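Allow me, if you will, to draw on your knowledge of protein folds for a short while. I have a record of one protein: its chain in single-letter code and its fold written as discrete structure tokens. Could you please explain, in whatever detail you think fit, how the structure tokens follow from the sequence? The record follows directly beneath this note:
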Amino acid sequence: MEETLNLNSIQTAVTSTSHSLDVIWVLISAALVMFMQPGFAMAEAGFTRAKNTANILMKNLLDFGVGSISFFLIGYALMFGSDIGGFIGKLPFIEETAVKIDYSFLMFQTVFAATAATIVSGAVAERTEFKTYLFFSIITTAIIYPISGHWVWGGGWLSDLGFHDFAGSTVVHSVGAWMGLVGAALIGPRIGKYNEKANAIPGHNLTFAALGVFILWFGWFGFNAGSQLAAAGTENTIAISHIFLTTNLSAAGGTLAALATSWFRYKRPTLSLSLNGALAGLVAITAGCNIVSPQAAIIIGILAGISLVYSVEFIDKKLRIDDPVGAITVHGVNGALGTILVGVFATEGGLLYGGGFKLLGIQVLGVVAVAAWALSTAFILFKLLDKTIGLRVPAIVEEEGLDIYEHGEKAYH
């Protein structure tokens, strides 16, 4: 009897310790992802002009502030509440009782929601009304992002099909980018951006931009490896280590590929494109970081880095859509690319591993479906905001800077 009691006590202690390790890992990962917020802020500020720096920093601050509350009150339930028809979660999440809510998971998902909103900020930078953007951020984190997120992570119809997006190449990054694409197109380019040709409007501080990218690269280990949602036990530690490696290799591949491609195309090794190449590699690997080999991660990063250079040029010069930081390409094009490549490189079910075209077809379907949702809802929302609040600041405000007119203060003196 005594031996049985001792065995039960040991088993209870092991279970409790394992649970504690899992929760601590998720919360540490959430903190790493939250630290990506200043990374986005620094990168966006660096790639834009000094006169709008306070506005950029304010938007990134408020994305996390309003996003945390709106996702807590509404978004989390729509994303992870009881499934309704494979499309949406049930409101309110309180119906599940507070006891059943994993607060560490809620916190982890909150920082993801804020990331999706922040991506839009870069695409519409330097000419958007602050109050309009604030309202847009609330709707994004409360409704638009959570509903499509439910399809994949909340037990919705795409998860039933077997769509694989481990940490959010499509769920998070592409959603934000497609919304940013609509916003940038409807708001229009910055003054002086396009005449007979596309004119470069250089950012004011590449040091800030580089710092932001390094912070994002660091935080991405929490973004991807944290999505394992557990750390206790050999299986989880192996998985986390694998994800760390594939994440890093893809980022490195994206950096080098963007460097080489820009060097070949423009005859100079371009820092700004190399920085975005790193982000492109990170975005692309996010969907399949847990089920592709390290070698495949390098290839995915290289493809992302190459596509980054040509996609930025196409959107800027051919479509004439003004995206000051390259957010549409980094997060949208490469989010879609990385998600689709899961169907090629997945070690189980991938095209190159004897799985045929089934997974690849599901991945393409998921990318298209989520893109259609984000594009259509963003179009409706931006149009409504344009008719009510207004999207764009007056020309005098744009020319002299949003910092003084919108916020009454400058970032630099």
